[in-house]
## 1
Amino acid sequence: MSNKEVKAALKSAREAIRNKEYKEALKHCKAVLKQEKNNYNAWVFIGLAAAELEQPDQAKGAYKKAIELEPNQLLAWQGLANLYEKPNQTDVRGDLAEVYQKLLQLYESGDKQKWYDVCNKLVEIYHQEKKYSEVAETWQKLIQVKEEEGAEKAELHQLWKKMIQLLKDSTQSQDNKIEQSLLTAFEHAVNSADPVLGEDHQKLYKDFIQCLSKFPHEVARLEKACRDMMALYPTVSYPLEVLCLHFVQSGTLSEEALDCFSKLLEMDASSGPGIIGLGIKCLQEKKYKEAVKSLTEGLEKTSQCPAAWRYLAEAQMKIHKHKDAVLSCNKALQALGTPEGPNRRWQNPILQLKAEALVKIPDADAAEEAIQSLEQIEDASSDPVVLALRGRAYLSKGLMDQASKISQELLSSHPDLAESHALEGFIHYSQKNYEQAERSFLNAVERKAETAEYHQYLGLTYWFMSDETKRDKGKALTQFLKAAKLDNYLGSVFCYLGNYYRDIAGDKSRARGCYKKAFELDGTDEESGTAAVDLSMELGDTDTALSILKEVTEKASTGTAKWAWLHRGLYYLRTDQPAQAVADLQAAVRADPKDANCWESLGEAYLSRGSYSTALKSFKKASELNPGLVYSIYKAAEVEQTLGKYENAIATYQQILKTEDYVPALKGLGECYLMLAKSALGNFFDKK
């Protein structure tokens, strides 16, 4: 076949393809290849015809042969791209991407529109494969080409926005190059918007700031973006809220941060981050109750802020709400998310604070939970303060050997650490080795004099120490006063000060004040509440006593606050208000159905009200619970006598007199016999 015949055959093949006579085209191409086996066009036509005849393998082989012959010719690459793009071609993304890369090279100096089309297709493949680095690189190349061509600002803006969409799911990749590409796209997009001010631009800026907040090392960029948005949109609170949360999470509260909190609250008084900031300011100023209130309110609106939960726990610890502090620490740990996240540095302080709170709760389960929390702290074994906490947790759980071992290790390795001596003191105190405890707590106070707890336990040591200190509680008083001065939220110290003024100094008025303060600080402290009420009654200040009891009973849920219900019920009984007495004493019985004294008092109240049958039941219940309660047995007999059940009353009186000479029972027995005699005379039984 001559050269002229080869050209004619190729022309026939082209005509056959145009007429969709693909088998005919293959015949012409094969004839050409017999003569010229390296004919580029023949291989391309075979690829095209085979593809149309659903023979993909033959088509692919033909195109690859043509590419091998002429690697920089377009036709074969275009044909191969068309083949791979067919719906029936699977698992060819990687091959197609390589084809597109070659086509980009070939189109670069020629048809720009085709270059853009192929570039879009290539980026789409990379995006599907989650190859974000290649997405960023290719798309930036496209934008660069557009810029060189002098594209309009609006078109470039849309391209940067498309790049943001392509890379928005890449924030978890932890690839700095991809991250920088995404942030660069955001910066270009927000700066190229026209008009600048508008809802779309505002949303774009919000997305940019939200993206920046995911990268803890982009602090400067985040602050700048927030300030820039604040300048453009002075009435929008979002950038100020993000900036405030950033300051909270950073843990450093500068004047600038406090200024941001104030501005945000001026703009929106109900803003969660603003109220959280106010709470942290109160915490710094040692206004702990206000801090708890503000932080709690702020976290109801902005709950996913681990640092704020940690500040709340810290404030709750300052006012000795240890159980609340544990719950706040748990919320903080939930908000942290994965330990590898941007808030990871908060994990250890939160776990340590949680353990501190749990150690203060006198419960073996709490101690076990404290140990578990401490085990999660990184490098805990190298931190002596954490080790001392572990020792206290062991002590709370009753594991004396483990606690003593840690104490000895700390005293050996860190003799100048207050916590080392304090742990030793707690161990001696729990074993009632008061002289050794005194020595340890004095050492702890010497090293950390501002810790109220050390003074408190030194005072307790003196309180229980020996006969001499029992007679003279002056040393204990000094330490309790120091503890109260250092920490005026420490309710237990005020309780012991009350004990001192009541039992030692005989100053009922001052004692009452201390007990009242202790109870205000800890509403669960029944000892202080009872003492404050009793002393108020003794001092003739009934109003104060009743106001304390009213406050407790109003807050009490069913089955709680027995002491308050009992005290007020007895007061009503003494002041001849039987209806109120019955209601309060019923509540006391519900709180503790096995308290014989409550049942006895309830019986008295029913009796005062004239409810004899229910009074009888109450007295009988009291004597069942405590058979030694003679008064209840006597009152039951007395009620039976009043109801005319003389035989029953006589039997009950005789039961009392078998065990002791109880004069009221003798009197009652005589009266019953007399009443029976009168009854007999009335019925004319005397003649029998």
Note: The radius of gyration is 44 Å.
## 2
Amino acid sequence: SPKMASDSPESLMTLCTDYCLRNLEGTLCYLLDNETLRLHPDIFLPSEICDKLVNEYVELVKTDSIFEPHESFFTLFSDPRSTRLARIHLREHIVQDQDLEAIRKQDLIELYLTNCEKLTAKSLQTLVSFSHTLISLSLFGCCNIFYEEENPGGCEDDCLVNPTRQVLVKDFTFEGFSRLRILNLGRLIEGVNVETLLRPLASLAALDLSGIQLNDVGFLTQWKDSLVSLVLYNMDLSEEHIQVIAQLRKLRHLDISRDHLSSYYKFKLTRRVLNLFVENLVNLTSLDISGHTMLENCTIPSMEEKMGQTSIEPAKSSIAPFRGLKRPLQFLGLFETSLCRLTHIPAYKVSGDKNEEQVLNAIEAYTEHRPEITSRAINLLFDIARIERCSQLLRALQLVITALKCHKDDKNIQVTGSAALFYLTNSEYRMEQSVKLRRQVIQVVLNGMESYQEVTVQRNCCLTLCNFSIPEELEFQYRRVNELLLNILNQSRQDESIQRIAVHLCNALVCQVDNDHKEAVGKMGFVMTMLKLIQKKLADKTCDQVMEFSWSALWNITDETPDNCEMFLNYSGMKLFLECLKEFPEKQELHRNMLGLLGNVAEVKELRPQLMTSQFISVFSNLLESKADGIEVSYNACGVLSHIMFDGPEAWRIYEPHREEVVKRMWAAIQSWDINSRRNINYRSFEPILRLLPQGISPVSQHWATWALYNLVSVY
């Protein structure tokens, strides 16, 4: 069905790209001198493949914590005779000057550098080598690319006193970039003369000057016959700016939106300004005026406004100036303005805060370059998902996943995004989600847990994981999710609620999984972590969910896993068992969990001698009479003793209590149980019980095993 469209498998191209990047040495490359990656000499790759390799590599480094970046990766693309690059998107600290330098011989058509803070003026020089082919360039947020390092003095000793100083490069221009049509200089550093920088460009089609303060934009008119897209987000405008914009008659997309929280703006939008745009910019299909305060009322009278069916026809527009439009706009940005709540808005797509559709449009439009706006839009989505019902679930999930991936280090987005995910993945939406989509959610949740030790993010992520079927849906990230949860539980200061959820998740993860999984988790320190939690709770004299879950988790992880049973004994598990029994004599659930675990330990022949002490045997014998949790505590105590008895009289190395006396109490206990008891227990296999059947050493053990099998197969 179309609902599950996102469940189609990845393309072969995507799968191959991913595999090659994770196994460069085994596929495209070999290691030179054990450190430098080199392309095999018989490999020739076209730009369709190389672009994907580079773009996917950047994505993997950014979003997959297990993926190891290679220092010499970009050198694989240094020779255009064997590898061709045309369109590449590089982001953040992943790319450095030497990486761009390595690919300088490539004929790049499109180069997007987003928030690449490590790039310096060396990379400006490298850009020149792409000048004859480059059509589209973004330097958005590359805040150091106009800085070069200057060494004062030049002498060795002096350099230690005066470290390198950052100096602004003033003489760089886009001279020679004859084909450049699309340019994004968003968040350009102050002090660079934009007019001089851009003057050599003959015919710009799209220009983004987000976050740059320019008092004079008159120079824009030199492209009045070619400019179709202009973005001046967060620029404080004036009447002069408006007059210049009105002359750019070819504009199809104009964005003068702002973040109304960022700083004080003198400029206020008026009816006249909007009229001017509508009259002069006749080709306009997209306009963004989000965040602006309207100086005067631009709406039609409210009686008229409320009338009739909602319409996008300009003639019926609730915003008076837009009645002059020839046709509805494709996009109208009204986020955080009062206009978005009107009835008739002449646009196919509107960003705003009135309803789910507007909010999703906002997240979609602003995620890439405006995290400050996106986090507020996601917050609105969170409210919609929490209070109402999301009608565009798949789109909402996809957008939140994209935002979380794109802004892994933005605290606001991680907090609001992880909270929204919790509500978007809960059970009422379950049917509409594909396996692939749910896996993407798990990936971003684990990314969030990895990057943020912040309590809110950790709690949101843990809660979201509880919406999944555990362990099945987390199996593909099994090791990673366990490491993250143990990491949370090993922190010295802990939030009670997170601790409770994390222990619950740990317990669910080791229930009903294969032994190799349990052994792997045991080696990560699982047993030790749970015992530490129990120790802490004992010291506080508290028996809460954390205490019970911890014992339950130990019961699960020791099931038919001798290594983990041994760890339990080596880390003084028996001492804690006795102390808990003494401190909490009335806690039935606790007793059941502890004895279930000891049943697992007793199944291991090599470990049984450690249980053979007067103290332990007395405790087990006394628990035979326990009525705690129906028959569970008595049944488990009898199971422990049945395995011990199975080793024969010669293994009974104690004087008190006598073997016969204990046997008698075991018979009595078994006789007292109701054979039709409904049980509170999960068996993964009957092997440990079946072991006790074909033997003549201990009839009482045989009797316990037969009773157990009869009960389990007749009740279930």
Note: Residues 1-5, 158-162 have pLDDT under 50 and may be disordered.
## 3
Amino acid sequence: EVVSGESEEESSGVNLMEFSDEILLHILSYVPCTDLVLNVRRTCRKLATLCLDKSLTHAVGLQKDYKVNKDKVKQLLRDIGKEIYQLNMAGCYWLPSSTIDHVTQCKNLVKLNLSGCHVTSLRLSKMLSTLQHLRSLAIDVNPGFDASQLSSECKATLSRVLELKQTLYTPSYGVVPCCTSLEKLLLYFEILDRSREGFMLFGQLMVGESNVPHYQNLRIFYARLAPGYINQEVVRLYLAVLSDRTPENLHAFLISAPTSFAETEATKNLLDSMARNVRLDALQLPRAWINGSGLLQHLKFNNPFYFSFSRCTLSGGHLIQKFINGGKDLKSLTSLNLSGCVYCLAPESTFRRAEDDIDSSILESLVASCCNLRHLNLSAAHHHSSESIGNHLCQLLSRLKHLLSLALPVCSITDVAANVEKPPAAPTLVPQTFGKKIRVGVQTYPRNLTDQTNQKLESSVFWALMGSLRFLETLEVIGSSFSSAMPRNEPAIRNSLPPCVRAQSVGDSEVAAISQLTYLQSLTLAQLPNILTGSGLVNIGLQCQHLRTLSLANLGMMGKVVYMSALMDMLKHCKCLRDLRLEQPYFCAGAQFFQALSHCSSLQRLCIVSRSGTLQSDAVMSFMANCLEVIMCHMFMGESLTVCKNLQQSIVRSFQADRPALNVVIFPLLHEGLTEVIRDVPMRHLDEITLFKSRVAEEPPNLWW
């Protein structure tokens, strides 16, 4: 490549080294730090100097450098350790724990992220004892962690830490009691109710963990709970101190709980104290707290930038009056999560049915008040527009010109007139269940947009919405009744609920409208019943050249993958695609599919979830050999356990040596041992791609550096 590059430079008369230092530094900023220090700087004197520039070595990120191994990290930290002020090793699950010992070379570290790295309490103590300038820390607390093993020097370092992110896999306070100056505390509770041996775990803390956390300087409190009763019990212990004395400077209080998290007397006291003593800028509470407490109306806000009322029964009238400042100016709000908030666009929640139309005046007030919204989530609810001209949900949302990410239910994007004038096409009348396969013949599809009915497309409200949100980077269109076949801690779901009646007409033309989003980076489509050929996917592949993440689930008929041909054509154009997740019954992962997927030269992670799905082992092996960047391959199909295990072992045996971060899980979807397999998946992959969920406005923007 270097030789060919030199010949091109000679012929064109352009020499890369003639560019200014500023331009070269900008180019080098896109190169992984390990390559800069260990390879690029050895090419010439000029690059040797530039590669060690402070702008490139001040902050080092290894979190997505899947090719880095322990030897490279050791050499990197030895060469530039003293120059590093910010080190991010989040999710480097493949590095042995001994690699952490070399972090002591970075004497000037101010920020350190070790989330997803296995660190024992003794190693942590030794490392932190040398990092006297540390102010921001992220770690995991695993079974066996013992705070009594932390040295006095380590505790002295922790006493100066201002920001702490702690992921708990065992009931523990971790290092929180040692962090007496905390201003930001982020807690992720990932504790399982049962141990690997099958014993029930309890929320009591380990012996010697009774020290009280220090929250007096706290400004941001965030807690995210995985499903499970034990996580609720442990977080209550963290909240007990807050309920006794609420920090005066608290301005962000966020608790994300996926299941019912009952309000107690202690939490009522906490909310009461917050209502009397603080003014908030960000708020997220469990739905039971919002639904059952009258104290919420007394909470005061300063310049709120984030609200999440996910899965609560908050009515639109209450939302506008109490939280959106009575419909007045709220330009500070940039992120709003109303996922699963089924009554948020209705004046009252008492008598509303799922099929009722929304109150467009509520949405209009919301859009007018929060004109600077960048992230909006309206998924997991039925938001049906009325026939009133100009009051369609898509028409109102088109006024939000600053949107970067948007999540909508499928039934909200359909044209009301289209539903009234004609019934759904014949294929959509097929029951959305896993029944007998139905022969529908060979489908053909138009290869580009010009072959479609342009007049129909461009007159639709969804087409107009996509045209107005030109800078949108993330889009999710998810059926309001969709649920993934692979939940977190439960067996695979065998049947899915039918799509909303209003969603029956949403199909290929709506997907084609998405191709207008030139800067789209992440796309999720789930439960679009009227997909007949998938022709819109080809348009997206051609036009959305920045697409990095693609998730498709239950498109078209459930008994046949009608969009396979279009999907394979689409993949040939997705040169930037890094993550692909497919969830579809009867999916055939054969030679043709993997041959098309091999065109995605940047692909790093692949996840396929398919009840009764099949795979071709030789095709998978060939794909892995051709796509050198792939480090994650998860397939949950209908094949036998023997076939799955043999293929998984073959992939690991063939490619693990050259791909240190390789993570392979191939397992029957309906096998009783699935939950045990899932618990061994690295949290980075599990949270970002393997498990299906809406990610728009899931947490405040820039919550962690």
Note: Residues 1-5, 420-443, 447-453 have pLDDT under 50 and may be disordered.
## 4
Amino acid sequence: ADSLYVSEYFSQSAQKLSFYSWYGNAKLFHFHVPEDTVLLRWLLQASRGKGPECTDMEVTVHFRYGAPPVINPLGTRFPANATVRPSYNISIALSGAAQNTTFVNITTPAAGHWFIAAHLPEAAGRIEVKGFSTPCPYIFQADMFVLRLTDMPVLEPGVAMPQTIVSPAKPLHVKVFVPKHAAGMRLELRSCVTSEQKACAVRVVLGSITLPQSFQRIVTCVGNITCSLALDSPPWEKWLQIMVESLGAANGSVSLVMLASFTACRPGSSSSFLSFLSLNQSQTSPRPGSAAAAGSSAVPAGEASHNVSKQRSFCLQTQPVVREDLDVVSVRYRLLNGPSVPVGSLSPTLLLLNLNTGMDSGGSLVVNLLLNKTSLSLVNATVAACLSAASPVLSLNATQNCSTAFFQGYPLSVGTSSAEAMLIVLYPQTDVWFLSLQLLCPKGQGECKAAEAKVTVFAYLTPCFNDCGPYGQCSLLRRHGYLYAGCSCKAGWGGWSCTDDTKAQSVGVQNLATLLLTLSNLMFLPAIAVAVHRCYLVEASVYTYTMFFSTFYHACDQPGVAVMCIMDYDTLQYCDFLGSVVSIWMTILCMSRVKKILKYVLFVLGTLLIAMSLQLDRRGVWNMMGPCLFALVIMIAAWVHHGVKRRHCYPPSWKRWVFYLLPGITLAFIAISVYAFMETNENYYYTHSIWHVLVACSVAFLLPPRDKHKKPWAWSQKLTCRYQICQNDREELYAVT
């Protein structure tokens, strides 16, 4: 009946989309689908602004169950030994209308964590100055509707349960709980008849839908004969949904009998008591050289070897594993019996890796196997391994692939020819993971029946594999309370872990970029010399400050190997920005030729206000444009005052305009144009160097001449001890008497 269904609605706040250059540009949505959900509907809404800068755009939306989607919009390479399965994605076009609404329906979805990631196309790479242009806002929001069955019938193992399908429009939903250590499951449908006492036709769907890959088992049963479906390695300790649909007439009901049975797997444990004793001894932390440490490491290893040879009748051998949480999205798995585990041929050795906390799917799971060649006497024997989620692979041989009932695992193998193997699972889904290992022989298992191999297993969860390498930075991202990590690459490197060197800069190019960006600041030396020569000592000290911090900021800001940081990066950046803006502020005030007391008051007051504004928003365009415009207003007002007072154009000399002011203004405008409109990520090292050169040269041209009553280096004459004629320091030049 319809009253048995409950509809629920889940929504999250909308997010502003970004053009894609790394995973941090993708906007993530995290939902939790409740148990007994029979229908899931996503409501995806994409919209854009109404300004002229808003153009047609395509939004890409990725879906994944259990973990954030692993995406690759740029087509870069993943790190070696990494497992990548394409994500399920759709595209939403924003061409005509300003808003697009799309629905995505999923029947019988898997209960648990679902993730959606949305982004715009690849970023153009242009460096935009904040405030010069208004980017178009593209907004995306995802809402989730679920239809949940409140009283879904429970199919008990070994108990036949009669059921009735009312009509084809109302399929039958039941669920069965899969116990731990279930090696196989068998579902049978018996006595299937219609209400008209005719042979029925039904379709049975076993399992739930997961994205990007779904492993639902579907079988069609026709007639009243017994119809069965068998599964190997069903998911342990989970509810398994079964949906039965009638394929008959629209008004006819179907009656049937359902029966579920399980095949149990008897596990063997490697010395659980001694493992517990070993754990207690390891927590007391004996010194490595002490006798207690030697005894605690030797006894469990020998006992484990004895148990493996003794318990040959078990279908698997479990090794105790301790999960050790180190930090956010950082876990280390430690084997209590030592890093080396015995692997036989009769039954697989099983290691349990718990990633079921809900906060472990935002990193990378790394599994490393190392074979002890001296422990394996057979030359052609190999150790096959399979990493799977939800349930283990209980039989590893040459004919069976690494898969369970509803999961395609990740295979590994080590042998005498290749003794080491590594596997990297990017964003592992939230679940209990199992690592199965078994010894295989090319001529059959009888050849290596009595053989045993020692394999050292290292397993850990890390936010970013290899910490993104030397050309990347590992960033911890957050969406509400969920944390995940991503790599931001530099120096032309790309890929998930910054291992793709297709567009990478060579070491020579990196050195050239560093030299250009640092040595171009030496062009401030002529400006400093001119300022000192004209007795502008305060201005010269500010230019020296700017040259120093700009040089070492760009030496620290470089990616790759050509880097040198004399202090904290944030401090260098702040000092560079502060020196640049204060230099422009003081240069324009110096050109205004106001009275000294007023000039120095404006110097100090403007510097304090600039320091405050840079602390509020360091990259805002008005932090530079505001002081410049205000100083220009003061300069123009002062020049008009001087011109009116003397009834002559100010500055009065045409040579000053032609040879100094006009070249300086031209260089300043070219520098602003290069800085605001021409810089990209690819040409930054030479366009920004041009900006340094043009600004420094414009300062040298724009500095006004010294007062005519002052001699060069007049400040040094004050150090002498003698009588001097008093001078009348007049601020106004060319006074008419």
Note: The chain has eleven helices and 33 strands.
